[in-house]
Structure formats: structure tokens, C-alpha cells
């Protein structure tokens, strides 16, 4: 390494932290912003989760017990919106903020002030969304996919608020993605070449491209919904020359890459955790990078597999079916590589590893049900049933959410400087694992038997399974309270963590002390 | 390795992001309520909140850019920082391209697929026969299936002139840039001024065209799919031209104050990229909305 020139006068002192509320409101520090994203995501996870509890309460027994159908619809809608845009995406962005600069040896994110702006507009966006629930006539009740004409002709007054809050969420995501790309492209330490980057950095890099490509399309979709509802346009109205199916095309052109936006960073996390606890380098690093990129490219060619039952021409249906099935190939490469990494490894089973292992198994189940759904003739049976609900909850809850929890356990000692309580963590893991399967596995069966999704009542033959599912749901919700307990306990103290934290951990983030100093890598580190 | 690293400037705390967040909240919440009230023909606080939000946003932009310009002029920005800005702007423009793609995509789908299907193409013979048997699937869609009639906007009048104006403005902006790079400040100022002037003329003509469309052609926002795509595409393009012109206006003021050097002129570069992008969008628009 070499001489470092300090060009400007105020050479701030290393661990000088601003104090009080101003630290959080005015911050430009990637670690502060990362923490805010993560805390925000956790809060939204519980708000969105409590809406899921309302849904499961109503579905505990057949017949209408607790809520009105219209309120039930608002719960399914806002639950989805909050979990996608308020919990999973901000959690990943928070992890990116915390970890990417440390992993590539950068002093901070490339555009620190914009970073703070992308965070702070998010709570306001969700404030608008949640306030809309209290409007006369209620909040959005057309499903998180807001299909026209449900969101145009038949929606209630508050739709404009929904539209503008989605706009802000999109602006936040786009700015966050630009920051991630520029940081990775421009801020890597010398000799941190592309193919030396940790896989979490790679997967986020590709995710950020997806975000930049599709979030503006979502903005276009909500804008057309707004003008259709309030300004008399007819994009989605056949009488004016439009087509409701056009909405679905635009929405899913965003929506399918969005699915990968919520899973690619998870792949990166698991690819960091498995080698650490198997004490072996990741098997097939390069193939992991190429597989991630292929998944991203393919994600733009599969959107209409959400629309097989809309009456598309057969050729289009076949095209989207085959492209969708093709995605199983790079995904299979990943699962194979994770398993091969563990092959003959010296494994230990701390909580992050447990969640990562559960991720591999349960995500693969979700992937297989996805393959079933990709088969057009079979999809005619599964479409809009609980089978679909089971599929995407397997990939999003026991996939994305489990990976986020794994990441939290994995990096908590680096963030707080203390080890978390391993015993409580294991309790959290086992409670989550059992309840999540009790919750989502029976949904496959009721779905195959024909129980429709998004309906507050069901036929009597589904009663027993639904009771199980609801019990699983309540247990899963309660289990997450253990997680909060672990986090709070770990933040307040405990066994001191070493710099490396985990015996098998490798990478730049493990070379700085725990807790990581407020400013890391003011001068670029040595990369071997 | 014997390279010297410049320090990457990480700004200290800044109040502007949170001010900007409050501004966006007021804009979104205000605009939402304004639209809702408007649809029910009642009055409320929405419009005022929207205006307040816009005012805060302007305040934030002025403060934020003042900080950035001060930092830049006092030499805090390394060449690495300059690259961050350039890359950030490029990806922002990519996201803008995708925003327009949503509307172009809607136009293509509506014209090539939805209209033909309403006319009975593919497997939709019964849709046509039962719903609107009188519908004529011809583009421009001057009569919707529901029976709203309008007139199409001809390409070879004002729109062609506007195309020429924007194309010329891109060329003059390019010469302003070469002037800056060769340190010919006179050429820079003159060409930048001409670019701005052409931008303003474009916007005025576009405004006149809207009046003409509404008054003479009966082409309105709510006159079916043709009117929808016409107004949303040209309208969002017009907004972007306005934004681009504002950026170039402030760049022009900075040029007059003697800012920018042949080597370092990110703000100019960003404004220029944005202007060229807006120009390319217009060329696509001219072909797909007006000519074809």
C-alpha cells in the first residue's frame, strides 16, 4: 500500500459519533442508515404480521366470525404491500448499507446524503399507506397486485393515497439501488477485483440493476391506475380501446423481477454463511455469479406465467412456460453448490447456519412448487388457490425472511460487539421452523383441493386444515417475539465478540473490530 | 503498488435529506387528497399541502445544491467522487428510460394487440361479435369501442417543427460542451443560451398544440386509448423537458459566475446528458405517437 493524501482540513476523529436524535435524522453514515433500515423493516414486519394474524383469525373456522369481508380484503392487500415493500426490501437494503462498504473496503456508500434521503422517505410512504386505512370507505382492498379494474372502476376513494405512497416507495428503492451500484462499481478497495467480491456484494449488485429496471415500470403502472380512476383515461378499459390484461402485463413486468429482487440477496447471504460454518470456501464461486446473472436476465422473460388463465395465445403461453422452467437450471446450480460446499466440511450448527440450512431445504420446496405452477395446464387448476399462497410464502418467508434472520444472527456480533444468546437463538430457530411448516405446508393441500385465495370464508371440508394453518400462523408470529428479545438482549450486552466472530469467517468485514467502528476504511485496506 | 489515493469525501451530517423526506410526504399526501377531493368536487387541504410540499422541496434543493456546489468549489471532490456522480446520473437516466418504456409498452400493446383483439383477431371473434360489433380496429383510434370520437394529431405540422427544434437544441448543447472543454467561454455561454431558448420555444409550441388539440380537434385526455397515450407520453416528456431546462438554466447561471473548468464540470455534463436523453425520447415519441 502506499501514501495516503489527506486533502482537506477537517480530518474527523475516528469514532466521533453525533449524539441524540440529530444523529439519526441528519446522518450520512452507512452504518446508522443500515441500522435504521433494519429497525424499520422489523417494525413493519410486525405490523404486516399482525394483519396476517387478523387474516388467520378470520380463517380459523369457516363462516364469517370477526371481520367484514371488505376489511378482510384490506388486510390481505396491506399485509402484502407492507411485507414486500416495507419489510423484506428495506431489510435487504439495510444489510446492503451495513455490509457492502465493509465487504469491499469502502469508507462509506458512494452518495451518503442521498442514502439518508432514500431511507427517510420510506417511513413517510408507509405512514400514508397506513393512514389511508382510516379514510372513509377504507384503504386499498384490491390485493397487493392491484389488478384493474379492481383498483380503478371498483376501488374506494383512498386509491390516490395508495398510488402516491407506492411512488415514494419506488423513488426510495431506485435511489437505494443507484447508491449500491455506484458504491460497488466505484468504491472497491484496490485489488478488490470483480471476481474477488463476496457473493453478497455480487447478488446485491445484480439486484440493484433489477430495481433500476423495474421500479420505474411500477411507477408507470400506478400512474395509469391513477389516471384511469380519476382522470378519465381508459388504459385498462376495453370500452375506451384499452385492456384490463394490459395492466397485468405491465404489473408483472415489474412483479416478476421484483420476486428475484427479494431472493437474490438471500442467495448472497446463504453463500456467505454456509462456507463459514462448513469451514470450506464456497464451492463454484464463478458459477454462482453466472447463475445469479442468468436468473436476473431470465426474470425479464417470464412475467406472463402469472397470467396463464387470461386467454393469451398458445404460443405466448408456451414461451413463458419454457422460460420459467429454464430458471430452475441456474437455481439448481446454486442449491447444488451450497450442498457441495458442505460436503465433507467441518460443520457446526450455530443459529445462522441453522437458518441457512432451513433456507436451502424450504426454499427448494418453494422452488419445486414454482415449477409445478409454471406448467400451464396444471396452472389452470392451481391458479388463484391456496397452492399459490403456499408457494410464494415458502420462498418469501422460509426463503427471504429466514435468510434475513440468518443474516441478523450472523452479523449481530459485528454490529453490537456482543454475542447473541445462542440458547435463545436456537429456541427461536426451532419454534420458527416447526411453526412455519405447520403454517404453510397444509396450504398446498387445501390449494390443490380448490380453496380459493383472498376469500374470507371457505367450504366446510377445508375446516380442519385451516385450523392447523391458523395455529401455525399464531405460533410463528409469537416465535418472532423471541427474535426481538434476542436482538434487544444482544444490543444491551453479553459475551464480548472478537473481530473475526466466527472461526471460519473470511472477508474484510471480519478484519475490523467488533463492534465495527463508526468509520471503517477511511484509507483502503489491503486486499490479498 | 505505488498509487496515491485521494481521500473520498464523506460529507458530515446534513439536514437536507430529512427536509426532502418531509417535502415528499407533503407532496404525496397533499396530491392524494387533492385528487380525491377533486373527483368528489369538494374542496380540502390537499392542494395547499401539495403547494407547501413543493415549496419545501424547492427550499431543500436550493440548500442541498448550495452545499454541494460549495464543497465542489472548495476542492473537496476527488476524481473518484466525480465518477460516483457521473455513474449515479447515468443510472438515474436509465431508470427514467424505463419509466417511459412503461408508457411506450402500453402504446404498443394497445395498438398492436388490444385493438386488434377488440376487432376480433386471434381467438376473440366472439368478443368482437357480442361486445362491439361496429368497432373498426384502425389506428389512430379515433373512435373507441364505446363510441367516443376524436381526431388524430397530424405529424407533419407543429410536431415536425418541434422535432427539428429539439434536435437542433441537442446540437447547440453539444457545441456548448466542446466550448467548455476547449475553454472557449464565449461559445459556451452563447450556445447554452441558444439551447435554453430552443427548449422554451419547444415548450411554448407544445402548450399551443395542447390548446389546439383540446379546442379544435376534440382530442382530450379522456378520449380513449389514443388520447391517453398521446397526453401521457407527450405530457411526461414535457415535464422532463421542463426539468431539463431548469437544470440547464441553473448551469447557465453557474457558467455566468465563472464555474466549471475544462476538466471538471459534472453539473454541466449531467444537465447535458439529461437533455440528450429527453431529445432521444422525443424522437421515439415523434415516430411512434405522431408518424406511425
CATH topology title of the largest domain in chain A: Cytochrome C Oxidase, Chain A
What is the CATH architecture descriptor of the largest domain in chain B?
A: Up-down Bundle
Structural class of chain B: mainly alpha
**CATH homologous superfamily name of the largest domain in chain A?**
Cytochrome c oxidase-like, subunit I domain
Give the number of domains of chain A.
Answer: 2
Distance between the termini of chain B: 58 Å
Q: Quick one: CATH class of the largest domain in chain B?
A: Mainly Alpha
CA(first)-CA(last) distance of chain A: 11 Å
The percentage of residues in β strands of chain B lies in under 5%
If you average the pLDDT of chain B, what whole number results? Answer: 94
Oligomeric grouping of the chains: heterodimer
DSSP helical segment count of chain A? 16
For the biggest sheet of chain A, the summary is: none
Q: Name the average pLDDT of chain A.
A: 94
Strand content of chain A: under 5%
Give a topology summary.
The complex is a heterodimer of chains A (528) and B (292).
Chain A: E1 4-5, H1 20-25, H2 30-58, H3 69-104, H4 112-132, H5 159-186, H6 199-230, H7 244-261, H8 264-278, H9 285-298, H10 314-326, H11 328-342, H12 351-374, H13 376-382, H14 386-416, H15 422-448, H16 463-492
Helix pairs in contact in A: 2-3, 2-4, 2-16, 3-4, 3-5, 3-14, 4-5, 5-6, 6-7, 6-8, 6-9, 8-11, 8-12, 8-14, 9-11, 11-12, 12-14, 12-15, 14-15, 14-16, 15-16
Chain B: E1 5-6, H1 16-39, H2 46-73, H3 79-118, H4 125-130, H5 158-181, H6 185-217, H7 224-256, H8 266-291
Helix pairs in contact in B: 1-2, 3-7, 3-8, 5-6, 5-8, 6-7, 7-8
Amino acid at each position: 500500500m502506499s501514501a495516503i493524501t489527506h486533502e482537506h482540513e477537517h480530518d474527523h476523529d475516528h469514532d466521533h459519533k453525533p449524539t441524540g436524535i440529530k444523529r439519526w435524522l441528519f446522518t450520512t453514515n452507512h452504518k446508522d442508515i443500515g441500522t435504521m433500515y433494519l429497525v424499520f423493516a422489523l417494525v413493519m414486519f410486525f405490523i404486516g404480521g399482525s394483519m396476517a394474524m387478523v387474516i388467520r383469525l378470520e380463517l380459523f373456522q369457516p363462516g364469517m366470525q370477526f371481520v367484514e369481508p371488505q376489511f378482510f380484503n384490506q388486510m390481505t392487500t396491506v399485509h402484502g404491500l407492507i411485507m414486500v415493500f416495507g419489510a423484506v426490501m428495506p431489510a435487504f437494503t439495510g444489510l446492503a448499507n451495513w455490509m457492502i462498504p465493509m465487504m469491499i473496503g469502502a469508507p462509506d456508500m458512494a452518495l451518503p446524503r442521498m442514502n439518508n434521503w432514500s431511507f427517510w422517505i420510506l417511513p413517510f410512504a408507509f405512514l400514508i399507506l397506513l393512514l389511508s386505512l382510516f379514510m372513509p370507505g377504507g384503504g386499498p382492498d384490491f390485493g397487493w397486485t392491484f389488478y384493474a379494474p379492481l383498483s380503478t372502476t371498483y376501488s374506494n376513494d383512498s386509491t390516490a393515497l395508495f398510488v402516491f405512497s407506492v411512488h415514494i416507495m419506488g423513488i426510495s428503492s431506485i435511489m437505494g439501488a443507484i447508491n449500491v451500484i455506484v458504491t460497488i462499481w466505484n468504491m472497491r478497495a484496490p485489488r478488490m477485483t470483480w471476481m474477488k467480491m463476496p457473493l453478497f456484494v455480487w447478488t446485491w449488485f445484480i439486484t440493484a440493476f433489477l430495481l433500476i429496471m423495474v421500479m420505474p415500470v411500477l411507477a408507470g403502472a400506478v400512474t395509469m391506475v391513477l389516471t384511469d380512476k380519476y382522470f378519465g383515461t381508459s388504459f385498462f378499459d376495453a370500452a375506451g380501446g384499452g385492456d384490463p390484461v394490459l395492466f397485468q402485463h405491465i404489473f408483472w413486468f415489474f412483479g416478476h423481477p421484483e420476486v428475484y429482487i427479494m431472493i437474490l440477496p438471500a442467495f448472497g447471504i446463504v453463500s456467505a454463511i454456509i462456507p463459514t460454518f462448513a469451514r470450506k470456501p464456497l464451492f463454484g464461486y464463478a458459477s454462482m455469479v453466472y447463475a445469479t446473472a442468468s436468473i436476473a436476465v431470465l426474470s425479464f422473460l417470464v412475467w406472463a406465467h402469472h397470467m396463464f388463465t387470461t386467454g393469451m395465445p398458445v404460443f405466448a403461453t408456451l414461451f413463458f412456460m419454457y422460460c420459467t422452467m429454464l430458471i430452475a437450471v441456474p437455481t439448481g446450480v446454486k442449491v447444488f453448490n451450497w450442498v457441495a460446499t458442505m460436503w465433507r466440511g467441518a460443520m457446526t450448527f450455530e443459529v445462522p447456519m441453522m437458518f441457512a440450512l432451513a433456507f436451502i431445504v424450504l426454499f427448494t420446496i418453494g422452488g419445486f412448487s414454482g415449477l409445478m405452477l409454471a406448467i400451464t395446464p396444471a396452472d389452470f387448476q392451481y391458479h388463484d388457490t391456496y397452492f399459490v399462497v403456499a408457494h410464494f410464502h415458502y420462498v418469501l418467508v422460509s426463503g427471504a425472511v429466514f435468510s434475513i434472520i440468518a443474516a441478523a444472527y450472523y452479523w449481530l456480533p459485528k454490529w453490537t460487539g456482543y454475542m447473541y444468546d445462542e440458547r435463545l437463538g436456537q429456541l427461536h430457530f426451532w419454534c420458527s421452523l416447526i411453526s412455519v411448516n405447520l403454517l404453510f405446508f397444509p396450504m398446498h393441500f387445501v390449494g390443490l383441493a380448490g380453496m380459493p385465495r383472498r376469500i374470507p370464508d371457505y367450504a366446510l371440508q377445508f375446516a380442519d386444515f385451516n385450523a392447523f394453518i391458523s395455529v401455525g400462523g399464531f405460533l410463528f408470529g409469537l416465535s418472532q417475539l423471541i427474535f426481538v428479545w434476542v436482538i434487544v438482549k444482544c444490543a444491551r450486552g453479553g459475551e464480548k465478540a472478537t473481530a473475526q466472530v466466527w472461526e471460519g469467517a473470511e472477508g474484510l468485514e471480519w478484519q475490523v473490530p467488533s463492534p465495527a467502528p463508526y468509520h471503517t476504511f477511511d484509507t483502503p485496506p489491503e486486499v490479498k | 503498488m505505488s498509487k496515491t489515493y485521494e481521500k473520498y469525501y464523506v460529507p458530515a451530517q446534513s439536514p437536507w435529506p430529512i427536509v426532502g423526506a418531509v417535502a415528499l410526504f407533503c407532496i404525496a399526501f397533499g396530491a392524494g387528497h387533492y385528487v380525491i377531493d377533486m373527483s368528489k368536487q369538494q374542496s380540502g387541504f390537499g392542494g395547499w399541502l401539495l403547494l407547501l410540499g413543493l415549496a419545501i422541496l424547492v427550499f431543500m434543493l436550493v440548500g442541498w445544491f448550495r452545499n454541494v456546489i460549495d464543497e465542489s468549489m472548495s476542492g473537496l471532490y476527488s476524481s473518484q467522487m466525480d465518477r460516483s456522480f457521473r455513474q449515479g446520473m447515468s443510472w438515474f437516466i436509465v431508470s427514467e428510460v424505463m419509466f417511459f418504456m412503461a408508457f411506450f409498452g402500453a402504446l404498443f400493446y394497445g395498438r398492436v394487440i388490444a385493438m386488434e383483439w377488440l376487432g376480433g383477431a386471434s381467438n376473440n371473434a366472439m368478443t368482437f361479435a357480442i361486445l362491439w360489433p361496429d368497432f373498426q380496429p384502425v389506428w389512430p383510434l379515433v373512435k373507441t369501442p364505446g363510441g367516443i370520437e376524436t381526431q388524430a394529431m397530424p405529424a407533419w405540422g407543429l410536431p415536425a417543427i418541434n422535432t427539428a427544434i429539439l434536435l437542433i437544441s441537442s446540437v447547440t448543447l453539444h457545441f456548448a460542451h466542446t466550448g467548455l472543454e476547449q475553454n472557449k467561454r464565449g461559445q459556451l455561454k452563447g450556445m447554452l443560451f441558444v439551447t435554453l431558448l430552443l427548449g422554451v420555444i419547444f415548450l411554448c409550441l407544445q402548450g399551443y398544440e395542447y390548446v389546439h388539440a383540446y379546442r379544435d380537434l376534440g382530442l382530450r385526455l379522456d378520449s380513449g386509448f389514443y388520447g391517453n397515450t398521446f397526453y401521457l407520453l407527450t405530457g411526461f416528456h414535457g415535464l422532463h423537458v421542463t426539468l431539463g431546462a431548469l437544470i440547464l438554466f441553473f448551469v447557465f447561471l453557474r457558467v455566468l459566475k465563472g464555474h466549471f473548468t475544462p476538466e471538471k464540470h459534472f453539473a454541466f455534463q449531467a444537465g447535458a446528458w439529461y437533455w440528450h436523453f429527453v431529445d432521444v425520447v422525443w424522437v421515439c415519441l415523434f415516430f411512434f405517437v405522431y408518424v406511425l
